[in-house]
Sequence to fold (446 residues):
Amino acid sequence: MKHFEVNFDGLVGPTHNYAGLSFGNVASLSNAQNASNPQQAAKQGLLKMKALHDLGLYQGVLAPQQRPDLNLLRRIGFTGNDSQLLQQSAAKAPDALLASYSASSMWTANAATVSPSADTGNGKVHFTPANLTNKLHRSIEPGVTGNILKAVFANPKYFEHHQHLPENDYYGDEGAANHTRLCSNYGKAGLELFVYGRSAANSQQVAPSKFPARQTLEASQAVARLHGLDNDTAMFIQQNPAVIDQGVFHNDVIAVGNQNVLFYHQQAFLNSQQEIQRIQHHFGEDKLHFIEVNDQEVSVSEAIKSYLFNTQIITTAPGEMAIIAPTNCQESDSVRRYLENLVTRNTPIKQVHYFDVKQSMSNGGGPACLRLRVALNDMELAAVNQHTLLNEQLFNTLNCWIDKHYRDSLRFDDLRDPQLITEVNTALDELTQILQLGSIYPFQQA
Ligand code: SUG
Fold:
């Protein structure tokens, strides 16, 4: 049996905009109200997907969500037709209007936590959509995320879908952004690292004081339980609260792992040295490469600015890996120098590929935020909706689809325009046919 890691990237939706919605995410706040370019954003993401496909990896596409979410506006008391909902909310609750329009589902690292069949109790691939309770604009994602995942991973013989955790900060869950799986090979049972920001039950435990810890220990434990992981396959580690307070709102902004490599900043975890030993102990005999970056090499603030750790580490050949980095890493002297040196060292990482994903980066979403990793064996891969797997033809089709439907500029005032709703729904309806997803969107079910 063969085993693969498939990246399912979120296709950037037609309403991609900069709304400053994510307190604790430095880029989101500093780019608030800038004009966005949804067409360029979608194309930047698609080019990254195509490049990974060209490197020989399987690459999947996850559809964006329907935005604006008019149901959100109705639930908070606005009434009338689409145009009235937009006008009223723009005047009386602009933040809610912005939340309803956010294209944040593009960051599919936050779509769900996925455990491969080699790790789980019943030998199926398990999916739990993230509830994303900490941010209003993200808390409206999990229902449709679940629909999309079920439309892509439909066969119950191989795939098990769980409901997202209860919608309360006690169980705040941000999905795979705080989850890394180490393994000696994708098909073997691995060690799933769940990194949490605070414990909801234990107020004595240290926690960040300035910015929110979005992921709780209790949520991580619940997901591990749902997926049938045991003490050998799941480990819980606390993120360093000091780095959350500097703007590391998800662990994948400060650490990333692939197979037997863990690449992390020295300040990433609380009690880092002990935790690293605990990881090696849990992992067993096989050798792990711990690539620790210290403050002198790259400071935490430079790591946040460049997204050095929001890179994808991909396996290109047995024992050989490449880093998929944003061009922001190339533009930072210390980070570029670090990466140039890294590929000469005795680790599996031998190449760096840079991609311009600046439209997403300006909202705090790097290459790793844009993808959900799903390790699959060949039978499971054959059971995936094949229309969502990228090839030359789908790449061309999606490129034309973006050209046909996306605007090249979006600002707050554009969001009052009911014509935008018609444009988006037309685009999404066509997309569900391209990816053969069925009727996943509320407007298709009405
Ligand atoms: O949740 N930004 C996202 C970025 C998510 C990054 N994902 C990972 N690290 N895996 C967030 O903060 C900003 C939207 C705005 O302000 O318009 C936003 O939602």
